[in-house]
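Quick one from the shared queue. A colleague (R.T.) flagged DUF5808 domain-containing protein as missing a structural entry in our internal table.

Convert sequence to structure tokens.
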Amino acid sequence: MNQTETNNAEWSNPENWSAGLYFSKKDSRTWVPKSVPWMGWTLNLAKRAGAFWMLGLLVGLPVLIILLMSMTNG
């Protein structure tokens, strides 16, 4: 089985999905389609890069918004 087949098998496995979040160490991708693909993409939180992306989005995005808002109100 090549990596593409492994990724697809892991993505299809319901045990890798929990409350809409995806966790699979065998899947090589950081960004994967959501369980309903037309709804967009999600992070593979079993990967270090996925966890860093999540942290960056949860912390960095609000900080960026606050900075942009303070610049426009100044």
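The chain has one domain: 3-73.
Residues 3-73 form one domain.
Added to the table.
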